[in-house]
Amino acid sequence: MMTSRFMTALGRLCLVTALAAAVLPRSAAAQYDAEPYAIGEMHTITSTVLGEERRLIVGLPQGYEGGSQHYPVMYLLDGGGHFHHTTGITQFLANQGRMPQMIVVAIPNTNRTRDLTPAPGEDSERFPTAGGADDFLSFIADELMPWVNDNFRTADYSVLVGHSFGGLFANYALLTRPEAFNAYVSISPSLWWNDRSLVEEARNTVEQQPWSGRYLYMTMGDEGGDMLPAAAAFTSVLKASPPEGFAWEFVWMNDEDHGSIPHKTTYDALEWVFADFRVPRNLTVMGVDGLQQHFAMVSEKYFDVDVPENLINQLGYQYLGQGDTERAIEAFELNVEMYPQSANVYDSLGDAYDAAGQDQIAMENYERAYRMAERTNHQSLAIYKANYDRMTQKLAQQ
Questions:
Q1: CB 320: neighbour CB atoms within 10 A?
Q2: What is the pTM of this model?
Q3: Distances (CA, A) of 378 to 62, 65, 370, 390
Q4: Which long-range contacts (CB under 8 A, 24 or more apart) does 387-391 make?
Q5: CB of 161 within 8 A of CB of 170?
Q6: Residue 15 CB: number of other CB atoms within 10 A?
Q7: How far apart are CA 106 and CA 82, in angstroms?
Q8: Can you tell me the distance from the alpha carbon of 161 to that of 358, in angstroms, rounded to the nearest whole number?
Q9: Cα(12)–Cα(3) distance, rounded to whole angstroms?
Q10: What is the pLDDT of residues 112-159, one digit of tens each?
């Protein structure tokens, strides 16, 4: 039973949109208003397993607040260095319909070598604090993950991402607790560790591993020493005895180095893991029924997921672009039914009724979008108000 004491959130991690202050003298920059732009939340969790407090940075998907949708979770090692670019990747790919929206839980380091490495063996003198991977994995799986599930709307799907020693840890987690995560992203893993002990462990156990339904995406850059040979040895084990139902990929990124490889790997890995999530660019090929059937398949393969709001919205506007207002209204009505707490779905439905010449119904939907956005100071409030004002004026002139 978990007995850790958890602390409340300490504050918000903010990216201040004050570009003017960076390029103009203070007197000139003072003329511009700058507001904080939050990209994550900072939390602290007290771990019984590790005997210390751990900071966390949590990135929530767009539209999380006020919604009811559940999201898969990425657990990101070396979180202090990789949080910013990783949340950008997840948001971009989700907006392009290439993966689901995702919660990112980044774990900054305290004692990196201790936490991310298995028993050091011959490396004990060189790395005297090493060997805490079991405790750190227990912290993540037995303390952190339950806390995340209790405090956020999570789906039953998780991804572990680690670089260098973090990649070594990802491979170790796959070998020792494969049920902990659904997908493992191992970036330039230090599989040379302890005379390639994980390679030997894989060779001895791979045929008995319960890896069905799991994913491993592993990369290596243009790096020296035993980095590439050790990774190649690990993949040779997978090639010789591939576990049934286990999907894996190894990519040698010879144009990347040890420092540059995390960004590209994370992007490519997420596209690969969620390859079946993607839909055609021309959504009218599928239509409303096709989209629903597609995401029924996605739910069976990954986790329960509804057709995303943004994809239904795109479908509706593609129909409007073709002059098919009837099907556009059908699509936007579905979005209203599925996402009634979103102001945008009513504004889009107003556009469809506007195009169909049904001004009164258009005005009613524009007003609902505007009033909802007004209560939450929505970022598109000005657009919704302009549509409402325009339709109100048009009706008054009739």
A1: 21
A2: 0.85
A3: 12, 11, 9, 19
A4: 387/347, 387/350, 387/351, 388/363, 391/350, 391/354, 391/359, 391/362, 391/363, 391/366
A5: yes
A6: 11
A7: 8
A8: 50
A9: 26
A10: 999 999 999 877 889 999 999 999 999 999 999 999 999 999 999 999
